[in-house]
Amino acid sequence: MKKGMIKLTVLYPNSEGKTFNMDYYCNKHMALTSNFLGKTLKGMSVERGIAGVAPNSPAPYAAIGNMYFDSLEAFQKALSQADQLMADIPNFTNIEPVFQISEVMM
Amino acid sequence: MKKGMIKLTVLYPNSEGKTFNMDYYCNKHMALTSNFLGKTLKGMSVERGIAGVAPNSPAPYAAIGNMYFDSLEAFQKALSQADQLMADIPNFTNIEPVFQISEVMM
After folding, report:
1. A46 and B105 in contact by Cβ < 8 A?
2. Per-residue pLDDT for A67 more than 90?
3. What angle is formed at CA B52 by the lines to CA B51 and CA B58, rounded to 5 degrees?
4. ipTM rounded to 2 decimals
């Protein structure tokens, strides 16, 4: 992904009693996202949290999803139509995600 | 970056009174990191937080740095020698970062 692109990072914080279905997330939710956004979506990636860096520390986030767009306008247009994607969240997790919009610097 | 790789995500939470020097981070700190880790580091990226998705919401994180490794062993070896990199943090921010080790799923 290139400098200047817009990145949406969706972070799912770990905590007691929270679950995350990574299989559904990767195979169903991200497929839904990709189909829905079409060529507006320039890239996508997913990570599974393993650990923090302190010895024996849990990962702060169960999962992180990343989506890339050419511009803020392209992202905002996608977001304005994303109700279906938001509605899918309860199908794979009871975690309330944290959303960040960023500019790729390098 | 490929499925199965190990990713270190360093997140710098935004809050009142916190500062982050993105210029130093990209041009000095990441260069120091790249030189220090050499070919153990398989990829690197940086994002600057712009906003949250709720209208007029600030970005949860001022910046996010990402580093990729071939394996957990490679990452842990790099981490064990990273005192010099950790010591550089106060040179660009007064934010205490959050560290996550993840597996790349897709």
Report:
1. yes
2. yes
3. 55
4. 0.95
